[in-house]
């Protein structure tokens, strides 16, 4: 039977999905999860823990909504600077979170240049090199309605990690036409490349370990803008 | 954490596709989503993607077929798989090899999927029980099931009408021998359509007149049976005509083809009874002038040709799902 004080604690727990938990609360939660008993809350089973606490992970916010906006603003200017304007540009967002990012960059570019850039979306499901190793994800349709031959394609993605998705994306793009250039814009570069691939435009470089998770949340999909890194608690 | 339902669902829950009775709504939705992507690939200038590179698909056809075999072959080739066609009259079955031994041989050759059409109902199920690593796709077994045709019918309805749920679907013709109709009953029921079956009494399976079908929790309890085509067509959203299987009419189910055509053939005059934007479907091959008038088959309401294109995309989605999917529950 949940009691009144218990309810208020539960609300704190749920809220911590969005707001960083004080370190001591997180430790307490994790300690109680690990030991398999919730000494803090008695016997009730209806507690919802923050997902990071269940996995013994601590979360840290590494980019706020304002910082994300600044990063995208800078990326947009860099794209224009590198290509001397918006002529011939086409932004291709990678499903899922690259697509809203591509649309945001288009919005920013058109506010500076007064001209609208083409945007497409790309699903790399059919081009992955790990199809027989890892289970597949459900595909979303690729939608690039303009001819990309001779244009400058800027691939937009949220996190650059091993580089394998980008390899697949370049293969997919080459099947659609022969662009004059392919460039890469990412919000977060977390390192650990397994292929000789580098981003042309980076929002933020984040040194990580392979055990950590970097998660980009966007208003269009997740209801808020932020980047969170979760690390295992040792 | 932030992934939605369709992203967490990796693949359908089956290793084989034998009929539609084992697929639920979200399985079918997942196949539809992947089919959308495959349609995009079909519309490209260069129709080739590397998804199934290095995989082998064998089509094993003991009955004749054009569109099913070709569309499986094309689907496999667009996905970069190696497709090998075996037909009964050029295979060792001529020398008396059993289906069981043929299948074990093909499995030993490391086939990733076997597409089988057989004149006997249940042939696909039999094969699936013998296989440990190979996926079986039923491309028609006797008068029992033809799941990929049914999936493409469902996808075609969804694309043309927006939804399948609560649409009135009239299936007209030779219901006794039609495996397409049987699989469609499962698929359409799962997707929530209102089904009306129409055909001469002799070509209606007797189980449909059985009262057990009307019991409260039977999936087929809402299926209606109508012997008058004009009543059946009233307010129809989809008219599915079936081929009159003349090779199976020796048993004397019909007095004459002409009478059948007069009583059950879909003519442009009859079509006016249905909804003005109703679509006409036919699984092919058509007997024009028997179950369907030529003007209707090639008219503005006909989606028969788009069914064929969709067939390739659906089969790509199924091959992709079965061969690359993580099928943790490896059961029938």
Please outline what is shown here.
The complex is a heterodimer of chains A (234) and B (332). Chain A has helices at 4-15, 23-34, 51-54, 65-82, 98-113, 164-176, 219-222; strands spanning 57-63, 89-94, 118-122, 152-160, 181-189, 201-205, 213-217, 226-232. Chain A has 234 residues and is an alpha/beta fold.
Plain-language structure description:
- The complex is a heterodimer of chains A (234) and B (332).
- Chain A has two domains: 4-55, no CATH class; 65-232, Rossmann fold.
- Chain A is built from seven helices and eight strands, in the order αααβαβαββαβββαβ.
- Chain A has helices at residues 4-15, 23-34, 51-54, 65-82, 98-113, 164-176, 219-222; strands at 57-63, 89-94, 118-122, 152-160, 181-189, 201-205, 213-217, 226-232.
- A five-stranded parallel beta sheet of chain A has the order 3-2-4-5-6. In chain A, strands 1-8-7 form a three-stranded antiparallel beta sheet.
- In chain A, α6 links the parallel β4 (152-160) and β5.
- In chain A, α4 crosses α5 (98-113).
- Chain A is globular.
- The two termini of chain A are 34 Å apart.
- The model of chain A is unreliable at 1-49 (pLDDT under 50).
- Chain B folds into two domains: 5-146 and 309-324, Rossmann fold, CATH 3.40.50.1370; 147-307, 3-Layer(aba) Sandwich (Rossmann fold), CATH 3.40.50.1370.
- In chain B, the strands form two sheets. A five-stranded parallel beta sheet of chain B has the order 7-6-5-8-9. In chain B, strands 2-1-3-4 form a four-stranded parallel beta sheet, sandwiched between helices.
- The model of chain B is unreliable at 1-9 and 328-332 (pLDDT under 50).
- The chains are: A alpha/beta (234), B alpha/beta (332).
- Chain A binds chain B through residues 51, 96, 123, 125-128, 131-132, 134-143, 171-172, 175-177, 215, 217, 221-222, and chain B through 1-2, 6-7, 9-11, 30, 33-34, 36-37, 39-41, 44-46, 48-52, 79, 320-321, 324-326.
